[in-house]
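Onboarding guide, step 5: your first structure request.
Type a short instruction followed by the sequence, for example:

Predict the 3D structure of this protein.
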Amino acid sequence: IVIGHDWGALPGYAMAQLIPNYMTTLVTLDMAHPRSLQFSLKTVWKGRHILTYQLKQRAVAHVKRNGFAHLDEIYRRWSPNWDFEEQETAVVKQAFSHPGRVEAALGYYWSFKADFRGKDERAAKSRAISSAKTTVSTLCIVGDWGGISAKQMAATPAAFSGNYEYTILPNVGHFLHREAPEQFYPLLAEFLDNFQ
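The system replies with structure tokens like these:
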């Protein structure tokens, strides 16, 4: 069983391509299959940090500035209905305070150009894995205030040749497992019970 949120879901999709016999199920949170990702003006604006993070030194300084205040901004932008406590991001900020952690996290965003526009064999293999259909039984859970639209989720089944289900949680944003655990965990348990 592999569960991944946002960019943590992408390795899950890759594992489902590379080692499907070692997986019974994949659960992704607020991340559609890479083959079906679509970008609208709304998602580009919401995800504008992806562009600003490409300026590496400035991005690192920006994330660290004012006690990692940028992390609160990201939480509010992607889960605008969530009135989270200060402690919610305090533990994340503590994790980022260790040397090299910000650079490691931003490395995900820095890899986009090489992975999606690169012309070498590694980039070509990455694109092939991302665009292949998933055969592993998958549940995708998104919040209607998150980064993935209902229209996109409805179009996503074409990316799967195995069992595929999706659920959209109302009035919930990107950090749905933290924001609405009372909705998220029963859905997860019900789906996994089918594969016991």
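Each response can be followed by summary notes, for example: The chain is about 55% helix and 10% strand.
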